[in-house]
Amino acid sequence: MLKRVAAFAIPALALLACGVMLGIFIMQTHIPGTVSVQRAAPEEAAEPVQAAVEDSADEENDRLDLNTATAEDLQELPGIGEVIAQRIVDYRELCGRFLAPEQLLEVDGIGEAKYEKIRDLVTVRNTE
């Protein structure tokens, strides 16, 4: 009797393990928001990558750093007036430095629509 159970259980457990691993693989390759990367040969990729890094750095330098901006600086952003600019500064002083631009959504008076207008104009630099 025990041999019959063992003869059935071992292949069943092996099949179950394969199914679990296949499921994990499928989930990892189909999770929304993930990016698959295809690597090009180094000689093909070097120049475009360098240009992209330089463009990204230039764009990043043009953005307003939420951790160092004054209320006056923040008022230059579309839809940000004196009151909301001061709320951003107050939020930063109360809660500490911004870790991501999305934290602006936690500031009273900044909703999705207003955030969408300014998200490409602001950044959070790693200055600790």
Q: Could you explain how this protein is built, in words?
A:
- The relative contact order is 0.10.
- The protein is mainly alpha-helical and about 130 residues long.
- The protein is built from five helices and two strands; from the N terminus they run ααβαααβ.
- It is elongated, with a radius of gyration of 25 Å.
- The chain starts with a helix and ends in a 5-residue tail after the last strand.
Short description:
The chain is mostly helical and 128 residues long. The chain is built from 5 helices and 2 strands; from the N terminus they run ααβαααβ.
Q: What is the fold's blueprint, element by element?
A:
Layout: H1 2-29, H2 42-62, E1 64-65, H3 71-74, H4 82-95, H5 112-118, E2 122-123
Mean pLDDT: 74
Structural class: mainly alpha
Main sheet overview: 2 strands, parallel
List the strand order in the largest sheet.
Answer: 1-2
Number of helices: 5
Low-confidence stretches: 33-39, 51-56
Radius of gyration: 25 Å
Count of distinct strands: 2
Based on CA inertia axes, which overall geometry fits?
A: elongated
**Residue share in helix:** 55-70%
How far is the N terminus from the C terminus?
Answer: 68 Å
Task: Give the amount of beta strand, in percent.
Answer: under 5%
Order of helices and strands: HHEHHHE
